[in-house]
Structures are given as structure tokens and as C-alpha cells.
Specification:
The structure holds 2 protein chains of 2 kinds.
Chain A: E1 9-20, E2 23-34, E3 38-42, H1 49-56, E4 64-69, E5 72-73, H2 79-88, E6 89-92, H3 104-114, H4 120-133, H5 149-161, E7 167-171, H6 179-192, E8 201-206, H7 209-215, E9 218-223, E10 226-231, H8 233-239, H9 244-251, H10 257-264
Parallel strand pairs in A: 3-8, 3-9, 6-7, 7-8
Antiparallel strand pairs in A: 1-2, 1-4, 4-5, 9-10
Helix pairs in contact in A: 3-4, 3-5, 5-6
Chain B: H1 7-20, H2 25-65, H3 72-110, H4 113-119, H5 124-161, H6 167-170, H7 178-204, H8 210-241
Classes of the chains: A alpha/beta, B mainly alpha.
Chain lengths: 265, 244
Amino acid sequence: MAASDAEAIAIDIQDVGRSFGSQRVLDRVSTRFMTGRATFVVGPSGCGKSLLMKMLVGLETPDSGRILVFGKHVATMNAAELNGLRRRVAFVPQHPALFDSLTVGANIALPLVFHRIQDEAAARSTAVRLLSLFNLADRADLLPGQINQSDRKIVSILRSMACGPECLVLDEPTTGLDSPSRDAVFSMIREIGMVDSGIETLIVVSHDMQSTMAIADRIVFLYKGVVRHDTSPAGFLTATATDPIAAQFLAGAADGPMNTEADEA
Amino acid sequence: MNRRVNEIGLLIQAIVAMTRRPPPLRRIVREVFSCGNRSIVFVCVTMAFFGMILVYEGCMQALALIPDLSSAGPATIRSTIRVFGPLMAGLMVSFRVGAGIAAEAGTMVVTEQDGALLVSGSSPAEWLVAPRLVACIIAVPALTVVGCLAGILAGGALGVGWFGIHPSDFFSLSMVDRGDAAVCAAKSLLNGMAIPVFAAAAGLNTRGGSEGVGVAATSAVVRSCVAVAVIEFLVSTVARVAGA
């Protein structure tokens, strides 16, 4: 995504912490997601990335700290305010989470109907228009079970884009996909910034460092519930020279200090 | 999702969701058909055997004490309408439908569809519970009536055929009054409300993967059955106190 000159804070995460029993999953995490930027949140499995993303739309709550989205404290929002927030900040879960009994078009139309933005017929037209942006208009009448995994992921992303959000949060959009499917999804993510989607802020949780380095404007590296690096792709590359953990993660190496620390823990 | 779903909260959410946006008629019809169609044979067969057991044991005991079977039929009809019909129909629907609702809700949790619903401006209470709540409020009383008829007819066949009771004596409604019908209606309506809510709550509290869904389905059946038994006891007690 192209960086805008008038960059503003879309999401401000301040000292956020969260524990499950005795396990501290997030520990005083602070970072900011700016408008006009594609920020990739990376880190090994279990470091709290998905949990943090769910907190942005109020699906999870922090034990401590606060999250301000467009200047408003998420934890204090009532149901109506949360609904409003979820129109502006769209969240795409790790699984496509499509409803098997509804067609692809009806799945995409769902939030437009639920948020009372359009009636069913208009929402259906919007769904077909969105699908046609990614050459998938012919899938509109198929059931989710009749399309392949990468198309399901893309449909899931399109569903979250249906209401015209300003910010899109993608939680590991390529999980469980083979290499060509991963490329298809990342190619779509690249295109989001180019099509007339209105999305100003993109936040992606990813394990795929190759695509991350190619697309991201900024990288937040979470490790053991703590922000270890919050920098540009070039800055992250530089950091790997002095940080063996970041270096191991970037290389995707099986052996290294991450394993040693895990064994010690 | 990090919050535990409780049954009362889920019921309130479903009712609020229905007042905001009633479930589409085609979904209610589909759910009524699904709930009724999946349970009707099961309810009828079980109630038929239950009715025959009731008549057989009742008549055998009556013969041992007083050799008069004239009240066997009316007593069977009354106890079927007042107690066993709603109880057995409620339990059968819990077995047949409760596990299915919990498995669907549990799968929604495992595949993150519950979160997808919330970010789409809906909720599991609106999407999953509300249509099934309406469907069960319609289907469970209907199944109870059909089950009562099956039990009474099968018991009557045994009473008339085996014990030689005259059909007009057996099928007499002399012991049944409006209060019995009201108790039956109240129990079956409350069962219709409780079963989908308890089952969905068990499913929405699923933790883990497919194993969690299995645990949730079992838990849904147990909780729904206990709820049906509690409703049976409470309504019977309140009805007696109220003189019904």
C-alpha cells in the first residue's frame, strides 16, 4: 500500500497484556498501526498474534492495557459501538469461516444485510461486483464446498470487505494453503491496495516471510508475547544481523536459539 | 471467544435478536421440518411402547389389588397427557435434536464462524439459536401431542386386546380436564425453549477441536435432559399448588 503523506494513527495498542491461567500470552505489548500502511505482524506460533488481532475488533479482551481504534477504547464499547467498529475494521479469521448452506454470493452479502446497509438483492449485486474484481464472478452461485481452498480464503476476505471498511485485519490468510494458493491469496492482498476498496490500513498476521518482506510497509515481530522488533522490512533485515532469533525466524530454520529457549522453558 | 456462554444469557440474546430482526420464515420452516421430521418416528415408537408398558403394569397391579380395570384407560390417558407425554417427547427431542444443534454450534466455534458472525454484524444467538428456538417452540408441543396419541392408542390396543377392557371405558376422558391440557402445553412449550438453548450453549462453549465438539454434543444431551426433568418437576409442582 502506498504510504500517505498525512499519516494518522488508526490503531493504538498500549501496554496490552493477557494471560491464560499461569501462561502470559501477551506481555505489555505496545505498537501503532498507521493509516495508509500495510503492517505485517509476524512471529512463531503461540506468540499471541491472533489473540492480539481478535482484540482489535473486540472478540477478545485484554487483562491490562488498552486498545484505541480510531481514538476509541475498544474494551469500553457497548454492542452498538462494537458493531460500528466492526464495519470500519474488518477482521478475517484464520479459517475461511464460510457458511456451507449459503452460496458464495450470499456469504459475501451477509454482512451488508446484517449491518442493514443494503437489502438482499442489492447486497447480492455488491457481492457479484466484488467477486468480479478478482475474476471470481462465476463462483457467485456455487456453494463454498464447490470451490477450492484459495478461492474460499479470497471469498472470506471479500466478505469482510463488503461493508467498505477502512481497515482490514487478516489473521494468517494463507494457513493450510499450498504454494500456488498462497501466491493467489498474497496477490489478492497486493491488489487490495490497488482496487477501489476504500481500505486505508492493512494488518496481516503471517508466517510467510518471503511475501511479508515483499508486501509489508512495516513489520511487527512478536516473540513470547513481547514486541521484539517494530520496524520497516529493511530495518528487520538489519536487525537479523544482531538478533539470532529474528534471523532464525526469517530463515525459517528448524534449529536455532528459538528451539533452545523453548527447550529451556 | 473468551467468554463462557450461559443459557439464560443466550436465551435473552436470542429473544432480543428476534425482536430486532425476526428469523426468515423459510429458515423457521426448514428447522421445524428438521426438528419434527427427525424426531417423529422416534417419539411415536418410544411413546407407543411406553403407553403399552404403562397399561400392562397398571392393569397387572390393578388386577392384584382390585379386580376392576374400568379406570385403567382414563388414568393412563391422564398420566400420559399430564406427565409422560411431555417428559418423554422432551427427552426424545433432546437426544435427536440437542446433539445436532450442539455439534453445529461447536463446529462454528472450531472453524471461527462465531467470530465471523460477530464481525458481520450478527451473532450465534441470532443465526443459530433464534430460528431453532422458534422451530422447537412449534415442533416440541406438536411432537408431544402426536406422542401422547401414539402412547394412548398403543396402550388402548393392549388394554382392549389383552385385558378385554371395553374401548368406550378405556378411551374415556372422564379423568382429564383443562388443567391437564394446560400443564401439558406449559411443559412442552418450556421444553421447546430449553432444548435448543441448552444444546446451543453447550456447543458454543466448545474448547479444542473435533474432540471438543464430541464432548459438547454429549454435554448438550445431558444438559437438555436434565432441563426437561427440572421443567417437569417445577411445572407439576406449580400446577398442583395452583390447583390445576
